[in-house]
Amino acid sequence: MTIHKSQGSEYPVVILPIYMQHYMMLTRNLFYTGLTRAKKLAIVVGAKKAISLAVRSNDDQKRYTRLQQRLLHAVQH
Fold first, then answer.
1. Does residue 57 contact residue 24 with C-beta atoms inside 8 Å?
2. CA–CA separation, 69 vs 74, rounded Å?
3. Are 32 and 3 in contact (CB under 8 A)?
4. Of 26, 39, 62, 63, which has the maximum CB count within 10 A?
5. Angle subtended by helix axes 28-35 and 48-56, to nearest 10
6. Which of 36, 8, 3, 37 is nearest to 22 (CA)?
7. pLDDT tens per residue across span 24-73
8. Measuring CA to CA, which residue among 44, 41, 38 is closest to residue 16?
9. What is the pLDDT of residue 6?
10. Is residue 64 classed as helix, strand or coil in its secondary structure?
């Protein structure tokens, strides 16, 4: 199962493979989300370089959701 599909769920054991093949997805947030799905045990398998890259990355992309404008519009109507 992917980390995206597991969001909002917890599992007794999580095995989290981290490899350089998909380095563009190695972000701190994704790594954290994967680890925090585990209730009792998290096993991280992969390259030290990939894990280091994921932990060091702080590549949060700015999202343009217009949330503030939408909330203001909802309150006014």
1. no
2. 9
3. no
4. 26
5. 110
6. 3
7. 888 888 898 899 999 999 999 999 999 999 988 876 666 677 888 888 88
8. 44
9. 81
10. coil
Task: Give the span between the Cα atoms of 70 and 66, in whole angstroms.
Answer: 6
Give 4's pLDDT tier (boundaries 50, 70, 90): confident
The model carries a pTM of 0.67
Cβ atoms within 10 Å, residue 74: 8
Between CA 63 and CA 77 the distance in angstroms is 25
Burial class (CB in 10 A: 0-12, 13-18, 19+), 41: exposed
Task: Say if residues 58 and 29 touch (Cβ distance below 8 Å).
Answer: no
Q: Which residue is listed with tokens 């095995």? A: 15
Q: How far is the C-alpha of 51 from the C-alpha of 18, rounded, in Å? A: 6
Inter-residue contact 16 to 37 (CB < 8 Å) = no
What residues contact residue 63 under an 8 Å CB cut-off, 6+ apart? Answer: none
